Structures
1.
Amino acid sequence: MIDLIRARLQQGYRTMAYPDGPPPALPERFRGRPTIDASKCPDGCARCAEACPTRAIDLSDGPRIDLGRCIFCTDCVNACPEAALAYSGDHRLAVRERADLLAAPDRELELAAALQGRLRQLFGRSLKLRQVSAGGCNACELDVNVLNTVGWDLSRFGIQFVASPRHADGLLITGAISQNMRLALRKTYDAVPEPKLVIAVGACAISGGPYLDHPEVANGVEGELPIDLYIPGCPPHPLTILDGLLRLLGRLAP
Amino acid sequence: MSWNAEAARFATSGNGRAIPRSAVPELSPGELLGAISEAARAGLRVASFFGMADPDPEAVGLVVVLADDRHARLHLGRTRVQGAAFESLTPACPQVHLFEREIAEQFGLRADGHPWFKPVRYHRSQRPGHQAFAGVDGQAPVIGVTDFYRVEGDEIHEVAVGPVHAGIIEPGHFRFQCHGENVFHLEISLGYQHRGVENAMLGGPGQRSIHHAETLAGDTSVGHATAYCQVVEALARFQVTPRAQVLRGIALELERLANHVGDLGALASDVAFQPTAAYCGRLRGEFLNLTATLCGSRFGRGMIRPGGVGFDLDPGVVRDLLARLFEAERDTTNAVELLWNSPSVMARFEETGPLSSELAESLGLVGPAARACGLPRDVRHDHPSGIFRFAHLPVSTWSTGDVFARAYVRWLEVQRSIDFVREQLGSLPPGDVRSSLGALAPDQIAVALAEGWRGELCHAALTDGAGRFERYKIVDPSFHNWTGLALALRGQQISDFPLCNKSFNLSYCGHDL
């Protein structure tokens, strides 16, 4: 028993102050929102778009990166001959509308606005989520799980993952939605009582991710279920996921 | 008659090597299957056994990769099977059981006499006109609908779990046959995470190939990417620099550390031992953050690339990593030692979910689950490549094959991996870390093994006349080990299932591809 107390003293209190303090420091090489300095682009150059494995870069209306397709790899950065592309350290990526993920890289993102009215009343201080993993690689699930560890302590916001869709206010979905999981996902969604939310976490859930256009998957949740919150990444950093959830509940200053 | 590779007409190769396809003589199906059986009796392991499309639509090619752990050699054999079926080798050689089912599912080639002939991933065969598992109107069989093994009796009840599970975890189906608390039989039915990655690799390497390798099993990005890169480098006759080899080894061991520390915490959680659960939950993140310092991604994405590594370290970063590693080691030791000193934890861990070494060997288990049964198999030791040819980590084993053994082997590996990372960080060789590769050689077969944190993973590629992948076969360690979990539950209490499951902690997506 004394050993347990001694161990606790050594391990210390670890729950972060954020959001009442600054967010935890991210590594220098962290790949947050990608940026493009279009002024550096040589005429007619499309190397970044050609290099992108998920066709996330569109050059037709000034260079734009579809954050819902982006897997936050280094292919475009490495392909650019003029170092016009770079990842910022900005971890804030969560939005309410799919179209908001197509913002021009030099514009601020329309970050997720809080739920309003009745939904805010119901869920603002108590949000129970059922997680459904459906055709991904499990990395998003792991970094969602991390939010339950002592450093992040998701439960202090009243956000909890529950064991049954019957107990849930909504689904948090990861994975590209494999054909083999479509029925299970649909049944789980149908079992959640109204009103309900759907949160799509990760490139797979938003657009299919690295499995874009594989016949074995359905290219994400879009078209399968209505989505209330999109959190891009591959996988999104736990801070990005938490930022998204807190914005949805109005717990973060915009 | 004892096994002799030459006599059996298998080609001899090694980890991370490519040889001409023509060097692998074509045997008759009977000769090949007989040779595999002989080899297994002589102690060799089936690292991979797969089908491939044949120019003749009525035939299917079969390729086998045998691992001779004692001599660090791989032996490759092949055959062609005409028609709809072949005679199953599983009754004589159980470790091929799931490979045969996979061959049947992928190519519509029945394994006649297979004692457990059921779908693996519930998808259609790629050979037109041939389906081993019937669906409706040529569709794939409905997932989860199969002939589950049932025990009949008034007092028997069946418990079905999944695919959607209670926690934040991948989907799979578990069907228990129970008598009160006692489990007579557990059957595990997967395929829910099937994304068609092997199909997507065909014709490659393509733009997505490295990303598919990194996301085969998202927590084993470094392991799978390392094997993929070794295959591609073997085919391009390219040797990565010493500095890149060391950095790859560091990344692989950091991945092992994060997952093992996480697992020890999760095992504590499953026996409601909150202290270690809480501390290790945080500490896993500390190790992930070491990887993120290296390459920007907690999961090592972007680190392992064909031709070397994507990121280098400067002395300042090395110092920072060493300091944080020291703290993480101190805190992890503090957290984990509590487990072994807690009688309530040990009472739950010991003698729970045991597997004998005989069973582990006959099933072909790999990784900590096998080492916990006393089988000293570890790719870093048996088929070393990269830095592991020069820096040897002791192989961590225990003998009891129970939850405790699987936990303790992880703890031994944590300690040894920390020592390795510290040593390597302190002695990085100078030089570049990445170069571009030339074209891949045509008509080759290349195989790479890596010791992922769950165990041996195997990537095998056959190139066509243009040096493109004609077949790319991936074996995640979970492909071997899920059966081990199923059998470990026999005679156990169903309430110990989460604990046993966590003690294996296998990958659903790694199995389902």
2.
Amino acid sequence: MGIPLDQILIQTINGIVTGMILALVASGLTLIFGIMDVVNFAHGELFMLGAYVGVLTLAVTGDFWIALISASLLIALLGAAIYLVTLRPLIGRDPLTTILATFGISLVLQNYALWQFGPVSRKIAEPIAGHFNLFYLDYPWYRVAVALLSAAIIGGFWLFLKFGTWGIWIRATTQDRVMAQAMGVPVPWVLAGVFAIGSGMAAASGVLFGPFGGVDPTMGLNWILRAFIVVVVGGMGSLGGSLAAAIFISLLEAYASLWVSPSQAVIVSFVVLIVTLLFRPTGLFVATPK
Amino acid sequence: MRSRHGVVFWTGFAVVFALMIVAPLVLPEFWRRFVTEILIWGLLAMSSDILIGYTGMISFGHSAFFGLGMYGAAAALLTTQPPSLWLALFYGLIAAAAVAAFVAYFSTRLRDIYFAITTLIFSQIFYVVIFTWTAVTGGENGLNFDQPALGFGRSFSLSFTPTILHWFVLAVVAGSYLLLRRITRSPFGMVLQSIRENEARTRAIGYAVERYKIVAVMLSGLFAGLAGILYAIQNQFAAPDFVFFLVSGETVIYNVIGGIGTLVGPIVGAAFFLLLREGLSRFLTEYYLIPLGFIFIAMVIFVPQGLLGFMRRWLNQ
């Protein structure tokens, strides 16, 4: 039973790294939900397409950072287009219809990727090649960089929400859509913008994750499920809650994989979800609603 | 007025039923199988309509009930010699009911979108368990078993030819339809529909909404399990693919295309979807989901009531 301390430490770092990527995916999802009441089933597919755009631009330009930025921008545009074409007409209808619409979008996007890129997984080379010594392992600096970069994106996004003009519009729209419109906030554009930002964040996390596990058309589903768990455990619509829940769940999964295979370690996050639903259905990391 | 409605309804039912009886006798082998499959998927979709259409809860986890029905039947068919149809039904329903009780207990604490996500995640739990527990479930390869015979006691036994299987499935599906129709028109069904229309008010009148929801999920899961058993008997295998979330997604698609809250709509939706898939996959091989996805999105936006939505009131009268 004795698990050496160094292994636990390694898993802690691993857990935090994947947790930060997961937080980046989930924060886009929770943002879109919190503001628009839309559960974006296609979020995982945007993550996957972002990774593919990253692969393609990397092949052309050879620069990882250009690939990261262009993937985010392109998928943000795609997100805005998806919003305008399919979700805009659904405003005012039962929010459940948006699940159905985004589910249809995810089917189309996933199969489009399968058609276009084939089922074989593509690789993205790590942009930062260095390693450092962690006990007996050569730990890549890139992983640490990913965690920091994700944290920076989420932090920057939080500052933007807090102080940017658009950020303030977004928060105003969340609180009261009609009132915000009355005060001159261009609500339709804010909603499209939010969908674009959320999609861009998904794409960025897709590119960042690329060097870890490869890019294939079905990767989106795996991530959307975990992101859903994070969003429910963290409390829908709460950015801080998602961040905390993402790291919490990833750490638990990382520790669990010391004993069982990674595919079974997923069950740990399911258990966390069940326990959360039992005792705090509104989320573990948010204040109890009155 | 009412009796005339009844006459028209039962005539329509009898005509469709008669056509379905004749279908395997006149259709070529491939289409015979196809019609049977439509009925099975239609039963799955119909079971999910109890939740989507009548209680207002979208379940994205019906693959769990379907798959557990399948594996339950597999357990019975593998452990008993000779394989018994009735034991397969019994085991399958028990398995589906147990899973449904588990899922219902947790997921009905949540509403709307949260319910949908939770059912989705629960179905993935079962998928992971079945996929990784290779010793019992056969893992990725699934389980193969022999087809049971349609036997009553010791005296009478009939092995399943495709035609007899079709009739058996037809009888089960038609019986389920009549039963579900009766349930949705019963006081219990009325309470479910009032939960759909206004949950807070239903609770205020004094109905134990949570208990009704749990029963609704279990009822729905039971019939989904029945569909799984039929599928297992038809194809003589159980595979983790059928517990995968995609099956749940397709179930929802059948409902939306066919028209929720009509019971027969989902069967029509399943037929429409499967026929379209058959037609499209001749040109597009496995990428048929791209045009189907577009059709689905367009229907959600422009025809939210589905193909049979215009008959909804009439069918529920």
